[in-house]
Amino acid sequence: MSQTALIPSHRKPRQSASKTALRAGVAGGVLSTIAVAGAAGPAQAEPVTQTIEMPTITAGLSTTVAASAEATQQVALDLETQANEDAAAATAAKAAKKAKAEAVRKAEAKKKAEAAAKAKAEAKAEAAERASRSAERTTLSAPSGSSSSGSSVSTASAPASSSAPASSSASGSAASVVSFVQMQVGDAYVSGGTGPNSWDCSGLVQAAFRTVGVDLPRVSQSQSTAGTQVGLGNLQPGDILYWGGAGSAYHVGVYVGGGQFVGAQNSSTGVVQKSLDYDPPSGAVRVL
């Protein structure tokens, strides 16, 4: 007998073939069952139905709808306000345009009326000039109305005989004004002229009074109300004569005494010294 015969073996005892076959058969059956179940599972699965309950949002939705409606109403009001403002602006612009056109029309009408009045005055002066051609030859240094004959004697003799003492009777500022205008006799008439060699009627009068420190308005209308109104029967040398209404005069001149005046008449005659009978003035004002 061997010495190791009594020592138990450490090997696992070998299983019998029948047990191994049994276990294999059981395992194969389980796997077959699982395979069959897996194949049939999807076809036999029932659909899952689930009901989801939504939360109630009625309160929040009402607030949102109300806010949206208010915003829409505000937009509508803003649009209406803007439309009203645009309409008002258009109306105002239309009214302003109409007023401007009316003002332009009135200004043009006034300008035409003034031009017509001036043309009428010039035409009147020219007509008188032609009608009294012989009497116009009277000069400052030759007041000899007695040498004339016929009707010219009757119209110019009285002023001529008194013209020298009339000029000498002026004194102070009045004498300076008279002397200035008489020195301009023979100068040209130019509309808007203010000297020194061409004048219009109001430009000559303004320049004459400026020599004595009196600043008169520029135009005839204003000069006809620049002083105290005096009667034509109470004239003194240096008085301003005007033709037309006080405040609406279309011509002015300076009374130099002796029934005569000096004025820038028109483009045909220039600055002349004439008898009051040549073109009787409408009134007079006294500044000095």
Can you list the strand order of the major beta sheet? Answer: 3-8-4-5-6-7
Would you tell me the structural class of the helices and strands? alpha+beta
Largest sheet: 6 strands, antiparallel
CATH class of one domain: Alpha Beta
Give me the number of helical elements.
Answer: 6
CATH superfamily of one domain: endopeptidase domain like (from Nostoc punctiforme)
Write down the overall mean pLDDT.
76
Global geometry: rod-shaped
Order of helices and strands: HHHHEEHHEEEEEE
| Share of residues in helices | 40-55%
CATH fold label of one domain: endopeptidase fold (from Nostoc punctiforme)
Specify the CATH architecture of one domain. Answer: Alpha-Beta Complex
Strand % is: 5-15%
C-alpha termini separation:
184 Å
Q: Strand tally, please?
A: 8
Point out poorly predicted stretches: 130-168
Quaternary structure state of the chains depicted? single chain
List descriptors:
about 290 residues; alpha+beta; endopeptidase fold (from Nostoc punctiforme); six-stranded antiparallel β-sheet; two-stranded parallel ribbon; about 50% helix; rod-shaped
Commentary on this structure:
This protein is α+β, with helices and mostly antiparallel strands. The protein has a domain of 162 residues: Alpha-Beta Complex (endopeptidase fold (from Nostoc punctiforme)), CATH 3.90.1720. 51% of the residues lie in helices and 12% in strands. A hairpin with a 2-residue loop joins strand 5 and strand 6. Helix 4 crosses helix 5. About 14% of the residues have low confidence.
